[in-house]
Amino acid sequence: MIKSRLAVDIGASSGRVMAGWTTGHNLELKEVHRFKNGATLKEGHFCWDIDYLYEQIKRGIKASVEQGLNPTSIGINTWAVDFVLLDEHDHRLTEAVSYRDARTDGIMEDVIDVYGKEVLYERTGIAFQPFNTLYQLLAIKRRQPDILENAQTFLMVPDYLHFLLTGKKTNEYTNATTTQLMNAFTKKWDEDLLTEMGLPTHIFQDTHLPGTKLSPLKADLQRELGVSLDVILPATHDTASAIAAVPEWQTSLYISSGTWSLIGIENPFPICITKAMNDNFTNEGGVNYRFRFLKNIMGLWMIQEVQRLLPDEWSFADLAKESQTSTYSGKVDVDQRRFLKPDNMIDEIQSACREAEQEIPTSPGDLAKCIYESLAVSYEKAIKQIEETVERTYEQIHIIGGGSQNAQLNQMLADRTGKTVLAGPSEATAVGNLLMQWIAAGEIVSLEEGRSMIKQSFQVEEYQPQRSEQRYADKV
Ligand code: LFR
Q: In this predicted complex, what is the ipTM?
C-alpha cells in the first residue's frame, strides 16, 4: 500500500498539491490537485487571495485521500518575501500584499541613502530588491503606522498557511532569510538591525529549520478532511526547495526557471564582498545551512504577461515554437525595474526597443524571441559575474522548474555559453519540499542520499552547445 507525503508548491501563477513516495531507491511523484494563482487589486493594492489558497490546499488534501494515496505528512512552499501581520487575537491586520505592489516604491532608495548599502549587505547578505520584506514593513510603518503598532505576529505566506493548518506559529528559516532582516552569520533575526529600522522585534517568531515537525493538523481539520497528517516544515521558500533537488551542487551552476529565473551556485558560506553587492547577488539561506549565492533575473514572468495580453489564446509551447522561425534579433535589458510590474508588458518591451533604436517586435513569435534571447543574454552575464567572483569556471548549468521544459531557451543558453545544459526535473520544487519531509521522517538518511535518488528517479535532458562562434557574441 502506498503511503505518501504531500508537497504544496504555490507559485505566482499556479499552485499544485503533489503526492510523493519512496520505493526502494526511487522517488515517485503524482499531481493530485492544480489551481490558478495571481495577485488582484484590492483597495488599491495587488494582493494574493490567501483564503482561496487555503481552500485549495484543503481540496488537495481531500483529493489525495480520495485517490487512495494515504498521505501522512504535508509541507507548504511559496514564493518569498510576502507576509501577513496578526493582532493579539490572531486576526489578520493586513492582506497578503504582493511583492509586485507599488507600496514599496522609493523606500529601498531612502534606506540606502540613510544607511548605505554596505552595512545591510555585510550583515544580511541579501540583494537589494525593492520588494524585500524590510521595505514592505517600512511601507506599512510609513503609511499605516497603527497597523504595525497593533501587530503581535509576523508570519510569511507559507508560515501563515501552516498556522491555519496547525494553530502553531513559526518563521521557517529559509524564507525568513529573504526578508533582509536576518543576520547571515548568526542565522537569527538581526535585532539591532530591526531596532535601527524602527521595526518591532516582538512580532517575529523563533525560526525553525526545514525538516522540523511542526504539529499534526488541528483536530477540527482532521475531522473535516477525514485524515490525520503531520505538518513537517520543508524549505518554505520555493527556490530553497528547488535547489535542494539539484543533484550536482559542487560542479554545476543552476537556474531555477519559473516566474523568476534564479541563477547561481550553492555555497557553504555567504559571500558578502563588494563585487557581489555591486552585481546585486544574494545569499539566501538554504537547507543544511547552505547558502544560495544567486541573482534574480526577470524570468518567464515576461512571457506570462505577454501571453495574458495577446488577443488569441497562445500556449507557452506555441509561443516557443513560433519564436523558432522568427528572424527578430533585438534584445532588451530584462533586469530593468520597468519590467517588474508594467501596466502592459507588450508596450513596455516595445518602448524599450524603440528607445534603444531597435526594430519593434510586434508578432507573438517576435515578442517571444526577444524575451528568450534577452533572458539568455542576462543569464550569460550573471554566469560571468559568478565565475569572476568565485574565481572558477563551471562546465555545466542545471536548469530545473517549469521553465526547464523550454527546449528553445535551453539550447540558446548552451550555444551562447558553450556549456552543457541539463534540464529537469520540472517539478524540482515539489521534490525538494518532499525531500525534507522524507529526511525528517527517517525515510531518507541525508540530503546527499536524497539528491542521488533524485538523479536516478527523474529524467534530465542534455543540451550541448552547437554554434560556438556565437558564444559571448552580442551584448545588450
Ligand atoms: C521565486 C521567488 C524568488 C523570489 C521571488 C519573490 O518564486 O521565490 O526566489 O525572489 O519569488 O518572492
A: 0.99
